Fold this sequence. Notes:
- The complex is a heterodimer.
- Chain A has a single domain (5-67, 77-218, 248-321), classed as Formate dehydrogenase/DMSO reductase fold, CATH 1.20.1630.10.
- Chain A contains ten helices and three strands.
- Chain A has helices at residues 5-32, 42-64, 84-107, 125-149, 160-184, 190-217, 224-228, 247-251, 258-285, 290-313; strands spanning 115-116, 122-123, 235-239.
- A two-stranded antiparallel sheet of chain A has the order 1-2.
- In chain A, helix 3 (84-107) runs antiparallel to helix 4 (125-149), helix 6 (190-217) runs antiparallel to helix 9 (258-285) and helix 9 runs antiparallel to helix 10 (290-313).
- The radius of gyration of chain A is 22 Å and the shape is elongated.
- The relative contact order of chain A is 0.14.
- By secondary structure, chain B is α+β, with helices and mostly antiparallel strands.
- Helices cover 19% and strands 18% of the residues of chain B.
- Chain B has helices at residues 18-28, 111-115, 137-140, 153-157, 174-181, 211-214, 223-228, 238-241, and strands spanning 4-9, 37-38, 46-47, 51-58, 65-72, 90-92, 99-101, 122-123, 130-131, 163-167, 198-200.
- The longest helix of chain B is centred in the first third of the chain and has 11 residues, at 18-28.
- Chain B is elongated, with a radius of gyration of 27 Å.
- The relative contact order of chain B is 0.20.
- The chains are: A mainly alpha, B alpha+beta.
- Chains A and B meet through helix 3, helix 7, strand 3 and helix 8 of A and strand 3, strand 4, strand 5, helix 2 and strand 8 of B.
- Strand 3 of chain A pairs antiparallel with strand 4 (51-58) of chain B, so a sheet runs across the interface.
- The complex binds iron/sulfur cluster (2 copies).
- Residues 85, 87, 89-90, 101, 106-112, 130 of chain B line the site of one iron/sulfur cluster.
- One iron/sulfur cluster binds next to helix 2 of chain B.
Amino acid sequence: MHPAFSVIFLTTLIGAGQGLFLALYTSQVYSLFKLLPTQHMGLFYAVGALLAVLLLVAGLVASFFHLGHPERAWRAASQWRTSWLSREVIVLPVAMLFIALWGAAHYHDLTRPLFQAPGGTEVDLTLILGFIATIAAFALFICTGMIYASLKFLQEWHSPLTIINFILLGSASGFLTATTLSALLDTSLTHFYAGWALLFTVAGLVFRGASLIRNKRLRPKSDLRSAIGVRHTNMAQKAQGAMGGSFNTREFFHGKRDSFVRSIKYIFIVLAFVIPAALIIASFYRPGYLLPLLAFGIQYVGLIAERWYFFAEARHPQNLYYQSIA
Amino acid sequence: MTQLALVIDLNVCVGCHACVTSCKEWNTSGEAGPMTDKNPYGADPSGTFFNRVQTFEVGEFPCTETVHFPKSCLHCEDPPCVPVCPTGASYKRAEDGIVLVDYDKCIGCKYCSWACPYGARELDEKQKVMKKCTLCVDRIYDESLPESERKPACVMSCPTSARLFGDIHDPESEVSVAIREHGGYQLMPEWGTNPSNHYLPRRKTRIKIHEDELERVDNPLSKEERKRHVGPSEGPSIDDMASW
Ligand code: SF4
Ligand code: SF4
């Protein structure tokens, strides 16, 4: 497939936004259960939520560049019964709204317990709003992943690994954003977030590696024989019905050399996983916001390369009809 | 239920591209607006087409065969391109099974083109909406045309009659009979799309002739036989040749 930068930015930016919110809410839940020192974090959470919403908005803006008719984008909410793309279009604003409400509730300190849950946990408004936003964030990961995983003849994508990787990679970069933000604002949660960011980065490497291995072993189900229905081992295309290119040659081919594609693979493994992991480990010994910030920046570049490779790697069966012009 | 479809006979298609030009002419002049071309006479021409004829070479020289392969939307009975559309612009008509795009609803997200394994959909670079074969839906029901012309433009134009059009759910229709009697098949059956358009395979007509059918073993008129009977009245008589 041809990697479109609009979609690359959409998926990486909203992934980081969702991950950032999940990081913030995780720490809130931890302190609720007294697993973290409870302290007043209202402003930090509000700033974090604002950043998360900004990331989601940036992703949404990027996605508009993918559309031929962005002014009709509202129509895309109508087919949620069948289309994962439509579901994403609905869930994205819902997630934005509840993350924003959660941040606003923290900003206004609406943390008076509303009722006591069985077990003595005190439930306040932020906990409820955050819980809804968490569900929305996960639903958004699933919708985004399923857009690709549901296309069964794009065999490289048609796997649960696609969704797992969207969750893990989004969480890694989101928790790393939280680490950076926390180090910048000098809260006590920096190491907490850094630990999770490291965990997600390593898990991301494991599962992305698993999908690389899986895809390498894939055998395409279709070949030219089933594509044109002629049984012969030796067939070659002589004309594709157009001398110049067509939509089919632009949209479904990355147009780069194999060596280029392979180099992107190594680049993303190093930039998205290896270097950030090393920098996070180093940040445990050298406090300050510089290392987490560097780790986040490098990982984000790595994730752009990862997403580029994700698209380039997928071989569409229609390409069988566009093997050569002459 | 009705399912309109094309049946394309690869044994007959000569790759003349008449269907391509005729399709483009009819559909670019229709109410839905032009099918945009970019640089049509320039170095890098590119344009929107519903139908393309491709050419494949089968086998190795000198035992090669050229297969011309017309390719358009197959109006699948289980079209994977329809449920993925977020706007409902892509739909399959219940009454005749034609898969269509509503150009006024399409947002040009291209998701449906990813979901079609055949590459049958093309985004119009100027109008920024998805386009594909409509089976000339604006022709086949047009009662101002004589009945014999209520067919897709490609079918009308094919000089070798390689393209048939009809209802594949009616077992007695021309297309169903052709599929049944001439081994009609579907493209990429492995994806369960159940394409309505069928292709008829290349066919060779061969007669089996054995050696002894060409030369009679006991031919009384053969040179050898005649040499054996040299005298008058010794030669072969009519009784030697007729079986009565
Ligand atoms: S050929 Fe492609 S575009 Fe046409 S109905 Fe089938 S899946 Fe959809
Ligand atoms: S390009 Fe148009 S028809 Fe295709 S899925 Fe998007 S909105 Fe639907």
